[in-house]
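Project outcomes to date are best conveyed with an example. Our students and postdoctoral researchers have been running inverse folding experiments weekly, and each run begins with a structure described purely in C-alpha coordinates. The record below, which covers 202 residues, was selected by the lab manager from last quarter's runs and is presented without edits.
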Protein backbone atom coordinates (compact mmCIF):
# COMPACT_ATOMS: atom_id res chain seq x y z
CA UNK A 1 0.00 0.00 0.00
CA UNK A 2 1.38 3.40 -0.99
CA UNK A 3 2.02 6.12 1.60
CA UNK A 4 -0.91 8.22 0.30
CA UNK A 5 -3.30 5.29 0.34
CA UNK A 6 -2.23 4.41 3.88
CA UNK A 7 -2.95 7.97 5.01
CA UNK A 8 -6.37 7.81 3.35
CA UNK A 9 -7.15 4.57 5.19
CA UNK A 10 -6.18 6.13 8.52
CA UNK A 11 -8.47 9.13 8.10
CA UNK A 12 -11.60 9.14 10.19
CA UNK A 13 -14.78 8.63 8.13
CA UNK A 14 -16.70 11.81 7.42
CA UNK A 15 -20.21 11.59 8.91
CA UNK A 16 -23.18 12.27 6.63
CA UNK A 17 -24.63 15.77 7.01
CA UNK A 18 -28.21 14.61 6.75
CA UNK A 19 -29.60 11.26 7.88
CA UNK A 20 -33.22 10.23 7.27
CA UNK A 21 -34.96 7.45 9.19
CA UNK A 22 -38.20 5.85 8.03
CA UNK A 23 -39.83 4.82 11.27
CA UNK A 24 -41.53 1.47 11.08
CA UNK A 25 -42.10 -1.60 13.22
CA UNK A 26 -43.72 -0.18 16.35
CA UNK A 27 -46.97 -2.04 15.77
CA UNK A 28 -45.14 -5.33 15.22
CA UNK A 29 -43.04 -4.71 18.32
CA UNK A 30 -46.23 -4.33 20.37
CA UNK A 31 -47.95 -7.33 18.77
CA UNK A 32 -45.01 -9.61 19.49
CA UNK A 33 -45.34 -8.70 23.17
CA UNK A 34 -49.11 -8.97 23.33
CA UNK A 35 -49.54 -5.21 23.75
CA UNK A 36 -51.83 -2.72 21.92
CA UNK A 37 -50.28 -0.91 18.95
CA UNK A 38 -50.19 2.43 20.74
CA UNK A 39 -47.89 0.87 23.35
CA UNK A 40 -45.39 0.35 20.55
CA UNK A 41 -45.70 3.97 19.49
CA UNK A 42 -45.16 5.15 23.07
CA UNK A 43 -42.10 2.96 23.37
CA UNK A 44 -40.80 4.34 20.11
CA UNK A 45 -41.32 7.90 21.30
CA UNK A 46 -39.05 7.17 24.23
CA UNK A 47 -36.23 6.37 21.79
CA UNK A 48 -36.34 9.70 19.96
CA UNK A 49 -34.06 11.60 22.32
CA UNK A 50 -31.60 8.70 22.26
CA UNK A 51 -31.52 8.75 18.45
CA UNK A 52 -31.09 12.53 18.40
CA UNK A 53 -28.18 12.41 20.84
CA UNK A 54 -26.47 9.61 18.92
CA UNK A 55 -26.81 11.43 15.59
CA UNK A 56 -25.49 14.66 17.06
CA UNK A 57 -22.55 12.90 18.75
CA UNK A 58 -21.63 11.37 15.38
CA UNK A 59 -21.49 14.80 13.74
CA UNK A 60 -24.79 14.63 11.84
CA UNK A 61 -26.24 18.14 11.39
CA UNK A 62 -29.69 17.24 10.06
CA UNK A 63 -31.87 14.34 11.16
CA UNK A 64 -35.19 13.66 9.42
CA UNK A 65 -37.68 11.30 11.02
CA UNK A 66 -40.49 10.10 8.75
CA UNK A 67 -43.20 9.70 11.37
CA UNK A 68 -46.70 9.88 9.91
CA UNK A 69 -47.51 9.56 6.21
CA UNK A 70 -50.72 10.64 4.50
CA UNK A 71 -51.55 6.93 4.11
CA UNK A 72 -51.52 6.54 7.90
CA UNK A 73 -54.90 8.31 8.09
CA UNK A 74 -56.34 4.97 6.91
CA UNK A 75 -55.43 3.34 10.20
CA UNK A 76 -58.18 2.77 12.81
CA UNK A 77 -59.55 6.06 14.09
CA UNK A 78 -58.65 5.23 17.68
CA UNK A 79 -55.00 4.64 16.72
CA UNK A 80 -54.77 7.87 14.71
CA UNK A 81 -56.28 9.87 17.57
CA UNK A 82 -53.85 8.27 20.01
CA UNK A 83 -50.92 9.12 17.72
CA UNK A 84 -52.00 12.74 17.47
CA UNK A 85 -52.30 12.96 21.26
CA UNK A 86 -48.84 11.43 21.57
CA UNK A 87 -47.44 13.93 19.07
CA UNK A 88 -48.79 16.97 20.93
CA UNK A 89 -47.76 15.59 24.32
CA UNK A 90 -44.23 14.74 23.15
CA UNK A 91 -43.65 18.12 21.52
CA UNK A 92 -44.67 19.86 24.73
CA UNK A 93 -42.60 17.48 26.86
CA UNK A 94 -39.43 17.96 24.75
CA UNK A 95 -39.75 21.74 24.37
CA UNK A 96 -37.15 22.41 27.08
CA UNK A 97 -34.76 19.84 25.59
CA UNK A 98 -34.74 21.61 22.22
CA UNK A 99 -34.01 24.97 23.80
CA UNK A 100 -31.30 23.71 26.15
CA UNK A 101 -29.55 21.83 23.34
CA UNK A 102 -30.05 24.61 20.78
CA UNK A 103 -31.76 22.22 18.39
CA UNK A 104 -33.79 23.66 15.54
CA UNK A 105 -37.13 21.97 14.91
CA UNK A 106 -38.77 21.90 11.49
CA UNK A 107 -41.45 19.85 9.78
CA UNK A 108 -42.13 18.73 6.24
CA UNK A 109 -45.49 17.62 4.92
CA UNK A 110 -48.95 19.13 5.11
CA UNK A 111 -49.39 19.93 8.79
CA UNK A 112 -52.57 21.95 8.16
CA UNK A 113 -54.57 18.71 8.25
CA UNK A 114 -53.37 17.85 11.75
CA UNK A 115 -55.45 18.59 14.86
CA UNK A 116 -55.31 22.19 16.06
CA UNK A 117 -53.42 21.39 19.27
CA UNK A 118 -50.73 19.57 17.25
CA UNK A 119 -50.32 22.49 14.86
CA UNK A 120 -50.07 24.91 17.78
CA UNK A 121 -47.31 22.86 19.45
CA UNK A 122 -45.46 22.50 16.13
CA UNK A 123 -45.58 26.23 15.45
CA UNK A 124 -44.54 27.09 19.01
CA UNK A 125 -41.49 24.81 18.89
CA UNK A 126 -40.57 25.81 15.34
CA UNK A 127 -40.72 29.53 16.12
CA UNK A 128 -38.81 29.16 19.39
CA UNK A 129 -35.92 27.27 17.74
CA UNK A 130 -35.79 28.90 14.30
CA UNK A 131 -32.50 30.72 14.96
CA UNK A 132 -30.56 27.61 15.99
CA UNK A 133 -28.37 26.17 13.24
CA UNK A 134 -25.90 23.75 14.84
CA UNK A 135 -28.31 20.80 14.69
CA UNK A 136 -31.74 20.35 13.14
CA UNK A 137 -34.47 17.79 13.66
CA UNK A 138 -36.96 17.57 10.79
CA UNK A 139 -40.18 15.70 11.46
CA UNK A 140 -42.11 14.44 8.43
CA UNK A 141 -45.83 14.57 9.15
CA UNK A 142 -48.73 13.89 6.79
CA UNK A 143 -46.28 13.42 3.94
CA UNK A 144 -46.76 11.38 0.77
CA UNK A 145 -45.63 11.48 -2.84
CA UNK A 146 -49.15 11.80 -4.29
CA UNK A 147 -50.14 14.55 -1.89
CA UNK A 148 -46.83 16.30 -2.51
CA UNK A 149 -47.33 16.25 -6.30
CA UNK A 150 -50.87 17.59 -6.01
CA UNK A 151 -49.85 20.42 -3.68
CA UNK A 152 -46.79 21.28 -5.78
CA UNK A 153 -48.86 21.39 -8.99
CA UNK A 154 -51.44 23.60 -7.27
CA UNK A 155 -48.77 26.01 -6.01
CA UNK A 156 -47.17 26.18 -9.46
CA UNK A 157 -50.55 26.91 -11.06
CA UNK A 158 -51.28 29.64 -8.51
CA UNK A 159 -47.84 31.19 -8.94
CA UNK A 160 -48.13 31.05 -12.71
CA UNK A 161 -51.54 32.75 -12.61
CA UNK A 162 -50.04 35.47 -10.43
CA UNK A 163 -47.07 35.70 -12.83
CA UNK A 164 -44.59 35.17 -10.02
CA UNK A 165 -42.33 33.20 -12.35
CA UNK A 166 -42.47 32.58 -16.12
CA UNK A 167 -42.84 29.23 -17.90
CA UNK A 168 -41.42 26.74 -18.70
CA UNK A 169 -41.78 24.84 -15.44
CA UNK A 170 -38.44 23.51 -14.23
CA UNK A 171 -37.11 21.33 -11.42
CA UNK A 172 -35.92 24.52 -9.74
CA UNK A 173 -39.44 25.87 -9.68
CA UNK A 174 -40.87 22.61 -8.36
CA UNK A 175 -38.29 22.45 -5.58
CA UNK A 176 -39.30 25.94 -4.43
CA UNK A 177 -42.92 24.87 -4.16
CA UNK A 178 -42.41 21.51 -2.46
CA UNK A 179 -42.73 21.09 1.28
CA UNK A 180 -39.08 20.10 1.85
CA UNK A 181 -37.21 23.20 3.02
CA UNK A 182 -34.71 24.10 0.22
CA UNK A 183 -32.08 25.22 2.75
CA UNK A 184 -31.60 21.66 3.99
CA UNK A 185 -29.26 19.27 2.15
CA UNK A 186 -30.62 16.09 0.60
CA UNK A 187 -30.23 13.12 2.99
CA UNK A 188 -27.03 11.19 2.25
CA UNK A 189 -28.03 8.26 4.42
CA UNK A 190 -31.47 6.71 4.82
CA UNK A 191 -32.54 3.91 7.11
CA UNK A 192 -35.76 1.98 7.53
CA UNK A 193 -36.07 0.30 10.91
CA UNK A 194 -38.56 -2.52 10.50
CA UNK A 195 -38.03 -5.32 12.97
CA UNK A 196 -37.36 -3.42 16.19
CA UNK A 197 -39.08 -0.54 17.88
CA UNK A 198 -36.74 2.29 16.88
CA UNK A 199 -39.06 5.24 17.02
CA UNK A 200 -42.60 6.29 16.31
CA UNK A 201 -43.58 9.86 16.70
CA UNK A 202 -41.63 12.43 18.66
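After processing, the design step wrote out the following sequence:
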Amino acid sequence: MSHNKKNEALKEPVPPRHVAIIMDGNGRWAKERGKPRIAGHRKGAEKIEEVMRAARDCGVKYLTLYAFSSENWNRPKSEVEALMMLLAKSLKKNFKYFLENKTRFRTIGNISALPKNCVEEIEKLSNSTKDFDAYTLILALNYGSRDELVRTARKIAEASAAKRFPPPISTGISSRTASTPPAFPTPTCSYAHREKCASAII
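Confidence is low (pLDDT under 50) at residues 169-178, 190-202. The longest helix spans residues 37-57. The training component of this project remains on track.
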